[in-house]
Specification:
This protein is an alpha/beta fold. It is about 40% helix and about 25% strand. The strands form 2 sheets. Strands 8-9-10-7-11-12-13-14 form an 8-stranded mixed sheet. Helix 4 runs parallel beside helix 5, helix 5 runs antiparallel to helix 11 and helix 9 packs across helix 11. The structure holds nicotinamide-adenine-dinucleotide (NAD).
Length: about 350
């Protein structure tokens, strides 16, 4: 029998609870401790799941009875927590986005590599069944060659109120693009199966519920020659919320609606709704199962630190393009920042 993975949760808010629920259903791991700065929230959550509570994550990662952590913190703290965890030899599942800057993402990837631990990024959308069905159909060529896609995530203003740390740029790393936009960036790169080569974007501050943008649109070009629109909002009335993507191919059109389903039509044929398998794991459960399997099998997880960095580079390119008004190439942005963080390290080594 394979030993159960002994884990700690860093951050004890909403998504940590979603992870805890998935752990309960999955039953592959023991949740040993929770690190949460809010004493009442931390104690209550830890006692509900039968774990110990620490105010400070450094005490959690110092525990010898923990092999792995899940980081469920505001974005600006992902890098510091992941680097501390890696240095303490813990395997890491980090919520999206990997970090708030490419330099921080590099430092996390380097720390995990140096410690020989897994760094997986919680891009949950890759583990949703309807998204996997869509991916399989797109890869099988059911609509031919993809020319254009439209990925839209509109979150009802009421559903995110009060936005708390999400409204603070220093903690979120931006506005809606760093929140739901990072889901869209990662899933678009995955579904398109091609690198993004240029981006133009406009961002808006429509309702001022967050310090940075709460509405934005980007036009993205891919190496394959395809293009995509990515549209994000935190600022629509709740009953206008939506999360879906539409793909226009040489032989048809496919639409995937998150939490709902997938349909497609080939030109000249009727629309078909595709059944989503009932069996098998979904969402957070599937994500955690993949994390545990990658550790047990000593392999890279299906969503690596580099994947998280690529999605972040696309979002950073959207910010750069919106600010300058000129197109930005996410690959050169990613490379320049990688080079500058490496030259910084080299400079530090020579001091
Ligand atoms: N995968 C998804 O679908 C999904 C959905 C929502 C949120 N998220 C991600 O999950 C992460 C957390 O978001 P959330 O919605 O749970 O936020 P949240 O505000 O509900 O929870 C964050 C918790 O971290 C705690 N915290 C803050 N600083 C801390 C520190 N230094 N040490 C320990 N605890 C600290 C806060 O007190 C809070 O309880 C973010 O990265 C977010 O983007 C992912």
């Amino acid at each position: 029998m394979v030993a159960r993975l002994r884990m700690g949760l860093i951050g004890g808010g909403n998504i940590a609870r979603a992870h805890a629920r998935a752990h309960r259903a999955l039953d592959l791991c023991d949740l040993v401790a929770v690190a949460e700065t809010d004493r009442d929230r931390g104690r209550a959550f830890a006692s509900e799941i039968g774990a110990a509570w620490h105010a400070d994550w450094t005490n959690l990662v110092a525990r010898r009875d923990i092999e792995a952590v899940t980081i469920c913190l505001p974005h600006a703290y992902h890098a510091a927590a992941a680097i501390d965890a890696a240095r303490a030899g813990k395997q890491i599942l980090c919520e999206k986005p990997i970090a708030t800057s490419l330099a921080d993402a590099d430092a996390m990837i380097d720390a995990a590599r140096a410690a020989g631990v897994c760094l997986m990024i919680g891009h949950t959308h890759r583990f949703r069944k309807e998204h996997l069905v869509a991916n399989d159909l797109l890869r099988s060529g059911c609509i031919g060659r993809i020319h254009y896609a439209r990925d839209i995530i509109l979150a009802g203003r009421e559903t995110i109120a009060p936005p708390g740390w999400r409204s603070v740029t220093a903690l979120n790393g931006g506005g809606v693009m760093m929140d739901n936009g990072i889901h869209a960036a990662d899933r678009l790169l995955w579904w398109m199966g091609s690198e993004a080569t240029w981006v133009t974007a406009r961002l808006h501050h429509a309702t001022e519920i967050v310090e940075d943008e709460d509405l934005g649109v980007a036009l993205i070009g891919f190496a394959s020659g395809a293009s995509a629109i990515l549209e994000e909002s935190f600022a629509v009335p709740a009953d206008r919320s939506r999360c879906d993507a539409t793909f226009f191919g040489s032989e048809g059109l496919l639409r995937v609606t998150t939490w709902s389903g997938v349909g497609f039509a080939r030109i000249g044929e009727p629309w078909r709704e595709v059944p989503i398998p009932e069996e098998g794991l979904d969402g957070f459960e599937a994500e955690i199962a993949e994390f545990v399997a990658a550790i047990r099998e000593g392999r890279e997880p299906s969503v690596t630190g580099e994947d998280g960095r690529r999605a972040l580079a696309l979002i950073q390119a959207i910010y750069a393009a919106a600010q300058s008004g000129a197109p930005c190439d996410p690959r050169s942005l990613a490379e320049t920042q990688r080079t500058s963080s490496h030259s910084r390290e080299a400079a530090q080594r020579t001091v």
